[in-house]
Amino acid sequence: MVENMLELADEGDAGREDVGCGILYAVLRDSAYKIKRLAKAEREAHSKKG
Questions:
Q1: What's the confidence (pLDDT) of residue 49?
Q2: What is the pLDDT of residues 2-34, one digit of tens each?
Q3: Which of 8, 29, 39, 50 sits at a 20 to 30 Å CA gap from 14?
């Protein structure tokens, strides 16, 4: 899911026509990185529990 979000942000940013779209794609990209970081932390926490 995160990789799809990043790909969409990259594609959209490359073809955008105004600043508003750029902001939207930046928010999408930022959200993807946050989800990725949170998922990694959860995976590590569960791994430590056994």
A1: 87
A2: 999 999 999 999 999 899 999 999 999 999 999
A3: 39
User: First-to-last CA distance in the chain?
Assistant: 26
Global confidence as pTM: 0.83
Confidence of residue 50 (pLDDT cuts 50, 70, 90): confident
CB-based contacts of 6, cutoff 8 Å, min separation 6:
29, 32, 33
Domain boundaries, the chain: 2-49
Residue type, 5: M
